């Protein structure tokens, strides 16, 4: 049986979530943004595919300096858009 959380528990959870967002593994390309993709994705309740489109489009030209890697990120975004389109067509 779980006990109900009080306001201090919620505040501690919120602090822990914010601390996790301040740490980025593999670069700082998201931290340079006014709104990090994860925050936008969470606040708008986007799906996994929608979130990946946002992530790859936001980072392609800040994470990578080589054109080939930038194109690859945009191709990844396109892949998730294609998945979304295919899903809509099945409905």
Commentary on this structure:
By secondary structure, this protein is mainly alpha-helical. It has a domain at 34-91. The protein has helices spanning 7-22, 37-43, 48-63, 67-90. Helix 3 runs antiparallel to helix 4.
Count up the helices.
Answer: 4
Reading the helices and strands in chain order gives HHHH
**Which value, in Å, is the CA radius of gyration?**
17 Å
Coarse morphology: flat
Give the N-to-C terminal Cα separation: 41 Å
Average pLDDT, to the nearest integer? 84
Low-confidence stretches: none
Largest sheet: none
Total beta-strand segments: 0
Name the structural class. Answer: mainly alpha
Strand content: under 5%
Percent helix, as a range, is: 55-70%
What are the main properties of this structure?
91 residues, mainly alpha, flat
How would you summarize the topology of this molecule?
Blueprint: H1 7-22, H2 37-43, H3 48-63, H4 67-90
Helix pairs in contact: 3-4
Report a brief summary of the structure.
The protein is 69% helix and 0% strand. The protein is flat and about 50 Å long. It is built from four helices and no strands.
